[in-house]
Amino acid sequence: MLASLALVVSLISGQGYAPVRPAVDPLDQQREQRVMRLGKKFRCAVCQGVAISDSPASMARAQLDKVRELVAQDRSDEEIETYFIARYGEWVLLEPKKDGLNAFLWLGPVLLLGVGLVVILSQVKKKTVATVPVEAPASDDFLAQVRADLDKP
Amino acid sequence: MRRWIIFSIAAATATVLLYVFYAGFGTDPHAVPFMLAGSKAPMFTMKRLDTGEMVQLKDYIGKPIVLNFWATWCGPCKLEHPTLEWGYRKYGREVVFLGVVFEDSEENTKAFLKANGGGWPQLFDLKSTVAVDYGVAGVPETYFIDKSGTILGKYAFPIDPPTLAKRIEEIL
Q1: Containing H/E element for A144?
Q2: Minimal Cβ distance to B127: which of A14, A19, A24
Q3: Would residue A123 count as lying in a domain?
Q4: Which one of A133, A134, A146, B172 is at 20 to 30 Å from B101 when CA atoms are compared?
Q5: Helices (H), B49-97
C-alpha cells in the first residue's frame, strides 16, 4: 500500500533521474575481473532481480563501487559477502546460500522425490510377488449348486 | 513399520516445505530487508555543503540523530522536505538533523536548498559509499539514531509529520 502510494506520489511529483557522475577509476585487470565476478553475485537494491554489475541504476553503481573499494582493500570474497549481507540480508544474494533452512529448500524436493520412488518401487514389488488367488472351496449348498450347473455340458 | 517410517519422512518434508512456502508467500520478494536495526551507526566523514568543512558522525554521538538520505532528482524527497523543515524547527534543539545527498551534484543541491530552505547540515556523499554502508535501497530514507549511536529504525518513504514526531520521541 505504502509502496503504491510512493509510486503515485513520485509519478505526480515528477520523479527525475540521478545526474551522470564521473566514472570511478577501474582497478588493474585482475582485480577488476574479480569486482565484476562479485558484482554478478549481488542483487541491485532498486532493481528486480538484476545483478549490480548488470544494472545501470545509480544505486547499483554505488553498490558496485563499494565492491571495488573493498576489493581494493584486499578484502576476501567472504568478507565482501558478509559486508553486503549485514546491510541487505541474504536477499542481496542472487543465488541463496545452501546451508540452514535454505539447504532444506534445495534438498527437500529431492528427498520427496526419493520417498515417492521408494513408495512406487515397493508397490511394484508387492504386485509382482502377489500370489494368484486360490479358488475357495464351495462352502454353501447354493454355491455348490451353481458350480454344478455351470459344469454341466 | 517401514510404511510408517516412509510416511513420517514424507509428511515431515512436506510440512517443512509448506511452512517455507507459506512464509515466502507472506513476504514481498522485492522488499529489501532492514538489517541495521539495533546496530551501531556506521561512522562517516563527509563534506558539509554550506561551509565546505568535513563533518564526522562521531562528533554528534551523544545526541539523538535524524539522518535523511535524499536527492534533488527524487520527487518524494521534494515532497518530504517541508516535513523535515517542520521537524527541524520543532526538535532541532534536542535532535541533530543531518541530510545526506545521494547520487546528485553539489550545484543541484545548493540551488534546491536556496529555493526551498533547510537550515540543517547537508552532507555530500560523493561516491554514495555512505549510502551503501547504511543499506540504503532508494531515496528518501530516514534513519533514527539514539544518543549512544545505535540505529533504532528507518523510514523508507516520504515521512509525514506524525510519523516523524513519533520516531523522534523514540530516540529522545
Answers
A1: helix A141-151
A2: A24
A3: yes
A4: B172
A5: 75-91
Partner-chain contact A19 B76, CB within 8 Å: no
Beta strands B122-125 and B96-102, pairing class:
parallel
Dig out the grid coordinates for B79 from the structure.
Answer: 515532497
A46, A62: one domain: yes
Cβ of A88 within 8 Å of Cβ of B78? The answer is: no
**pLDDT tens column, B141-171:** 999 999 999 999 999 999 999 999 999 999 9
Q: Which amino acid is at B161?
A: P
Question: Distance between CA atoms of B103 and B141, rounded to whole angstroms?
Answer: 14
Task: Answer whether B157 touches A (CB < 8 Å).
Answer: yes
- Grid coordinates given for B92: 532541532
Q: Where are the alpha helices (DSSP H) in A13-100?
A: 29-39, 58-72, 77-88
Question: How many CB atoms within 10 Å of residue A75?
Answer: 15
Q: Which of B9, B132, B157 sits opposite A62 (nearest CB)?
A: B132
Which ipTM score applies to this complex?
0.83
Q: Which CATH architecture has domain B45-171?
A: 3-Layer(aba) Sandwich (3.40)
Domain extent at residue A106: 97-128
In chain B, where are the structural domains located? 1-31, 45-171
Q: Which residue of chain B comes nearest to A19, CA vs CA?
A: B104
Tell me if B32 and A45 make a contact (CB, 8 A cut-off).
yes
**Number of domains present in the structure of chain A:** 2
Question: pLDDT (tens digit, 9 = 90+) per residue, A21-49?
Answer: 666 778 889 999 999 999 999 999 988 88
**Residue at grid coordinates 523522534:** B168
Does A59 sit within 8 Å of B20, measured CB to CB?
Answer: no
Question: Is residue A107 a contact partner of residue B52, using CB atoms and an 8 Å limit?
Answer: no
Q: Which triple of cell numbers denotes residue A141?
A: 449348498
| Strand arrangement of the beta sheet that strand B122-125 belongs to | B54-56, B45-48, B122-125, B96-102, B65-70, B141-145, B151-155
